[in-house]
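Hello again, I could really use a second opinion on something today. I owe you a coffee for this, so here goes:
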Amino acid sequence: MVDTILKGNKLLNFEEQYSHYPIYFIGSQSDTVKIGNRYKVGHIKWSNDNNIFSCRKYTVNNLKLFVDTSIKTTSTVEYFSENYKTFDSTRSFKSYLLTLQNASDSSLYLGRTFELYYLTRQVKNKDGQWVSLDKNLSEAELCLTGQPTITLQPKDIIISKCKRYAGSFLTDFRFAFGTKNNVVYSNIFKDFIDEKIILNKLSDK
């Protein structure tokens, strides 16, 4: 794995909660996969909407999620100027790699946009309960006109990045992909977070 982004040392804090999971790579696995800037217009191949009906639904049997904490990487956030035409600044955050793999022999429909449409991050609180730190994009009222349809071909992978939180509370994390009764979970991994973020999410319910 080769990451071409400059390394950063920032962590998400209470005021900078961030739930977007951009796609950095989509395609077949190889000995060397280069990732760098997130995918934008022109990077993701368009799929005919009619092809959605030939895709399988993702399940725990055909979609695999894995967070690799052994690879330290950087994820950038680009802040626009007031006219939204130029970048005002860019901040780079410590991150882990998140990989989705199609383990089946059929293509899988994974939503629209340039990000992981059905993905949420969950954390375990002190009572051992899983708390969702964010809502997936499918729960937001987004205009998807002109957005690409994401289909993952057999055995192909998607690579995204999850920014890490600042804090002193060491606990379990995992990712959930899906909605309602069709949810695929990633491996469970340890990391730190500010417990105020968890308490804030519980108070919002």
